[in-house]
Design a protein that fits this description.
Structural class of chain A: alpha/beta
Helix content of chain A: 10-25%
Number of domains of chain A: 1
Strand order of the largest sheet of chain A: 2-1-4-6-8-10-12-14-16-18
CATH architecture of chain B: 3-Layer(aba) Sandwich
Oligomer: heterodimer
Radius of gyration of chain B: 18 Å
Distance between the termini of chain B: 32 Å
Distance between the termini of chain A: 43 Å
Strand order of the largest sheet of chain B: 6-7-8-3-9-10
CATH class of chain B: Alpha Beta
Order of helices and strands of chain B: EEEHEEHEHHHHEHEHEEHH
Number of strands of chain B: 10
Largest sheet of chain A: 10 strands, mixed
Shape of chain B: globular
Strand content of chain B: 25-35%
CATH topology of chain B: Rossmann fold
Number of domains of chain B: 1
Radius of gyration of chain A: 20 Å
Helix content of chain B: 25-40%
Amino acid sequence: MLDAASYFEQVKQALPGDVEARAQALHKAEALGLPTRRLEHWHYTDLARLLKKPTQENAALVATDFSALNPSEVRFEGGVMQASDDAGLADWPALSLTGAEDASDAMVLYNQALAQAGVVLELPEGGQKTLLVTTQGSAPQHLSHHTSLARGAELILIDDNMASGYSNVAWDIELAEDSKLTFVHLQQAGRQVATSTVRLAENATLTRLNLLSGQDIARHAGTIALQAAGARAELHSAILGTDAAHNDVTYVIDHQAADTQSNTTSYHALAGQARGVFQGKVIVQRDAQRVDAQMQARAMMLSDGPEMDAKPELEIYADDVQCAHGTAIGEIDADALFFLRTRGLDEATARQFLITGFIEQVLDACDHEPLVASLRAHIETKIATVLGQGSAS
Amino acid sequence: MSSLLEINNLQASVGDKPILKGLSLSIQPGEVHAIMGPNGSGKSTLSYVLSGKDGYDIGGGSMHLDGQDLADMEPEERAIAGMFLAFQYPLEIPGVTNMTFLKASLNAVRRGRGEDEIDAAQFLRLAREKARALGVDDEMLKRPLNVGFSGGEKKRNEILQMAVLEPRLAILDETDSGLDIDALKTVAEGVNALRAPERGMLLITHYQRLLDFVKPDVVHVMANGRIVKSGGPELALELEASGYADYIDEAVHA
């Protein structure tokens, strides 16, 4: 990845789409360079510097069992689609460079230049689907996914990342009237930059759950555009950061229309020398009255080593709105720990309970029971594996 | 006969502030004792020191449960030994369901006591049976521990934990506080159902009200970090009539 130009020369013949347009995107990306802390929205994630660190081993991968959801599956390795049990997903069209003209983010441009494959899914009116996308392997990969939901369609989309190398992943998602997307993003390994853009039409609902527990680098940036009345976004992230992990969740939530809602939370549990970042910017445009936007960033520091940077922001141009944001960073509650110990739980198990409980709040907004059960099992196994000691059952 | 709980000349302080100043108390199996006293007399400190909370320096004296010295035991070791504290303000634990917590707790105590763990089906039956008696419905069992529970629900939930763990000695710290009369009756019934020849109870309360429903064998008055008077149930009525003023003076001037 560090030498994108020669990598491009190497792979360009195999890339789908317009090679010339890709070359232009690459040229712009190279002119901007890898993001550094001098850019405001990369301030806490100096990617140019972070990518120079040696790759961290991820010892504790925990496979998540989604079989109860009976999903369609598609698997990527080294940026190449390996297997799909749904032929419709494999038709990758010519690269669309929509938006590239004014893309100012080098990582988006790199993705457009280098993306080898991706999911293209257009769910028709009233359609329903559950799709599991998995990534594996250690080779670098660039994926560009495009999804659109027609009126009233419902999709559960799970992006499960176990790949250990570098990856740059982009999701472009369009939600039509009354459609409903539940979008789960898991990252347990590797160094991943994920950029998503979601546009919501009237009464469309997005429930976005990020579960990040890798020990290397994760940067998950999302732009959510609420474009018509009744559109609602639930954006919830849980991060288990250990060792030297760097986990960054960054959202821009743009309330472009009146009567739209967003609810954003993040729960960082940090140990070792881990670093957690949450940035959330709520924008309420002029005339977007009666917007309800809530944002809370919480962090639980499990030792003296970690660092948490939280920056919630409100930018409001309408006058009749309900917006609030807050940040709370603390340690494990000593009284809660004592309470659990008086019930016979040893200290390690009691701590594990409190950490699990803290993290699992990320699931509160999801009402799909089989999905919640799968994710809860994943969280509990992951915490028990990573933090070791006690048993949580 | 050996006491269930034997406290001898116990002294405890927080920082350089002495709170328990030579407290002695003994409870025999099957007995229910009540400790009453004005605010600030050290009642809650006594419950925390007995159950092993951090932050208290034990300056002298001793405390034994069933002959085991509590001083160097962790809170969970005390729980395994049979100590139970029903909290005045039960804590809310988001994300951990009541059921998950109860099962983990019971199995931790059983493991510690060298008993077999209970399986999920057995546990479900046990928890439902005990819960029903306390008016705790299935919905409350599935909810995160105490989160969004009313004051009465939290207190009933404490008694449910006690019923599941079957302690040797239960300390109830102001369990009556914040309860309306119906909730108080339900809680009291739950407590009475747990009275047993081998079990002791220590009710810590500011008011006599709870003692109308849970009849103590012995009533103690605590003031300024010590037991200043002990008697039968009539002592509680006497206090209700005359207040704590006499005892505060007596303790200060002693």
